[in-house]
Amino acid sequence: MDGQAILVINCGSSSLKYEVYEMPAGTSLGKGTVERIGMGTGMITQEDPSDREYYLEQEIPDHGVAMSLVQKALTDPEKGLIQDLSRISGVGHRVVHGGESYSESVIIDDDVIAAIENNIELAPLHNPANLTGIQESIKLFPGVKQVAVFDTAFHQSIQPSAYMYGLPRELYDRFKIRRYGFHGTSHRYVNRVAVEHVKRSVENTNVISCHLGNGASITAIGGGKSVDTSMGFTPLEGLVMGTRSGDIDPAIIFYLLERGYTPEEVNTLLNKKSGVYGLSGISNDFRDIQKAVENGDKNAEETLEVFAHRVRRYIGAYMAELVKVDLLVFTGGVGQYDIDVRERICRRLENLGIIIDIEKNRNNGPGLGIISADYSPVTILVVPTNEELQIATDTHELIFA
């Protein structure tokens, strides 16, 4: 069947993002955002490919009201994306945590909803909002199949040697404390696009995927399956990020507690006041850091070097894990757009067969393209991620396969 409209929903605690795709072509019909839900005066903004913009401000007390605003925006006579709601053939939902229950996207039923609820304790800031989006969508689109696409699902192929921590096993048995990994939908998408771009088969291609943005993670992908990933039990582990510390000596936490910090303060410190923001003292936006570097700010320069060093360290580890690496992929807001950061990361990786071409890197821009030297054993690519399209693809395939 051709021409099904798939609605993709990413529901947060105070926001709701959505996009409509014409499938199986994968053409976006437009997207929108509802902001400041439950925070007084909120707003909904929607635009289509011709840049027609729909905008409305009003009080948005809950997600039910937010979904009703989405309905009105989608079908607005002048600036809507579809003629009526009957055009929606399926709804795909981003769900952050599927725990160990799901290794792939699934059509939502009572068991899936129960699993999302059971994993709330593993993602208390995200799963409740994702679940609310599902429940409100079911009300708005009765009879339309809904699909859950889990951020953690792609990483369920990781073996115990990579996902178990060096903690008493009872903590895994009782509390399921293990590495879960995140950004799985993005890593899965860019892996497929990169392999197609270089005209290889997924089965015999090994990839290191670097999703670098305010949240950042690296995944080792062997034959299309996640082998290891930098984020862990939570998205705090791994790389230095926009405001997150990434890997630290856990004893630092107790050191701070002994000096008067409360657990809440330490949690805020590590998640919201660290990373690039904390190191630079300037911003969590890499563009601001780059400007400061150009003005001679030594802390800003050091911050970018710390970030690049951490990324290189994971690349080196995953080169060893995969044994043979064919592709190194940069994606995410920083990976896709920041030419300087890509150069900083690839500096000193030549001995591993990763050789960037400076001119290709600077001329490629943020689009899909190869930026490695012709003689580089490992091909380096920039691949714009599109998690929404991946969710729409999964939804369409599950409903209409």
TrEMBL record:
- Compartments in which it is found: Cytoplasm
> Which residues take part in binding Mg(2+)?
N10, E387
What is the organism lineage in this UniProt record? Bacteria, Pseudomonadati, Spirochaetota, Spirochaetia, Spirochaetales
Record: residues binding ATP: K17, H211, L212, G213, N214, G215, D285, F286, R287
Instruction: Give the GO terms filed under biological process for this record.
Output: acetate metabolic process; acetyl-CoA biosynthetic process
Give the residues annotated as coiled coil. none
Q: Which gene encodes it?
A: ackA
According to its UniProt record, which reaction does this protein catalyse? Answer: acetate + ATP = acetyl phosphate + ADP
Residues bound to substrate are: R94
What are its cofactors?
Answer: Mg(2+); Mn(2+)
Q: Name one GO cellular component term.
A: cytoplasm
The active-site annotation reads: D151
Q: Please give one Pfam family short name.
A: Acetate_kinase
* Site feature Transition state stabilizer, where: H183, R244
Instruction: From the UniProt record, give the pathway where this protein acts.
Output: Metabolic intermediate biosynthesis; acetyl-CoA biosynthesis; acetyl-CoA from acetate: step 1/2
Q: How does it assemble?
A: Homodimer.
Q: Which molecular-function annotations from GO does this UniProt entry contain?
A: acetate kinase activity; ATP binding; magnesium ion binding
The protein, known as: Acetate kinase
Keyword check for Signal, yes or no.
no
The text of the family note is: Belongs to the acetokinase family.
The UniProt keywords, alphabetically, are:
ATP-binding, Cytoplasm, Kinase, Magnesium, Metal-binding, Nucleotide-binding, Transferase
Can you quote the record's cofactor note?
Mg(2+). Can also accept Mn(2+).
Purpose: Catalyzes the formation of acetyl phosphate from acetate and ATP. Can also catalyze the reverse reaction.
Entry's EC annotation = 2.7.2.1
Superkingdom is: Bacteria
